[in-house]
Amino acid sequence: MRWCLYVDMDAFYVSCELRDRGDLRGLPVVVGPDPRQGHVRGVVLSASYEARRFGLRSAMPVSRAHALCPAAVWIPADFPKYERAAREVRAVLFRFSPDVLPFSIDEAAVWVDLPSAIEARDLGDRIQATLHSELQLPASIGISPYRTVAKIATDTAKPAGIRVVPPNETADFLAPLPVRSIPGVGPKTEAVLQGLGIETIGQLRTGNSTSQLRRLGTFGEELRALASGSPHESTELDVGPPKSRSSDRTLPEDTRDEATLADAVRDLAREAAVGVQSEGFRYENLTVRIRWEDFQQVQRGRSLGAAREGTEPSVAEAARLLHELLQEERTGRNRRVRLLSVRLGGLSPRVGTQRRLDRYLRAGRRGRAPLDGAPDEPGASPKR
DNA sequence: TCTGGGGTCCTAGGACCC
DNA sequence: TCTGGGGTCCTAGGACCC
Hints:
Layout (H helix, E strand, L loop, with lengths): L1 E8 L2 H9 L8 E3 L14 E2 L1 H4 L9 H7 L4 E3 L3 H18 L2 E6 L2 E7 L3 H19 L3 E6 L2 H11 L4 E3 L5 H5 L12 H9 L11 H6 L5 H10 L16 E12 L2 H21 L2 E12 L4 E12 L2 H20 L6 E9 L2 E2 L4 H9 L22
Parallel strand pairs: 2-4, 7-8
Antiparallel strand pairs: 1-6, 1-7, 2-3, 5-6, 9-12, 10-11, 10-12, 10-13
The structure holds a DNA duplex.
């Protein structure tokens, strides 16, 4: 029988920091921009479980976090450190199975063939103990033949727990949980479901809701299948090569000054292009996104007609798109800009970068080779 | 309390082609 | 004079995830 052990690291960024700062164990610790450094625009990236007792959560504005827990210890984010730790975690997981699918920096699905839930639970114990003893990193693990169910189970096991859901117990396990615990159900979908009188996963199964769920399209069908204990899961479990890369920046102060914004957008366009190039990709389209001071967003994108590389096409097109967006805003509400973003999409491998790409995929993105059947001749025109 | 930075997927209309 | 269906690409916006 095939099992999914869904491994989710507990308070990952904080746990990485505590490896270097053992003296902080047991204290409310937060990774994020320090709100005591004056005017700071930012959110909590990770909070220790001690900090969570004060109500702190990931994605909470740091000003609110500071108000809730003035005694918290703040540590600035060190992403290279967390990337290194994530690689250590994956290396451990690969020792237990060749089928490890990372889903984010702190989550991965480990697939194994085992005769029963007993053995699956035993393997979960060993993985958890190894991560703790060798890396000093706590993890929670959910176990089910279904990846979605395993992930939900992980959340109920946190922190430092293990939850096994044998296949015949799936529907009963899910029934009392709120619909919001389903991955893909956010505030909007939750509100729609509440409007239908559906609060728990179990209520998704009742007869009269089936027709109403059609309002949600195919997603409604998937919700119903999950609730009944047999989720639709694609057999294609590989994570492919990246589709886009972006650089975003929230400005220190909202502004409508075009010179300032043009400088910023050029920096972002350069940054994104350099990143794409260093990963061995070219890009074929570009999107500039603006978040206004009222948090509404607009975006404008353009196809470049063919795969490009280097910073020049990115910088030039980003400047044009920004100008167009600002021009239109001036004739309207003329709001100030809070955030600028440049996204490069339509990524394709650069010529002669097969080796680098292979290394990239092995580093965590297991899956089909992106170059299969896609010879990339210089100057060859893209499909279309 | 005043909200980051990085991604993915879906929908929907219009252009364009056969 | 009035009438198709299917497919792909482009673009904008939105929901969601960590």
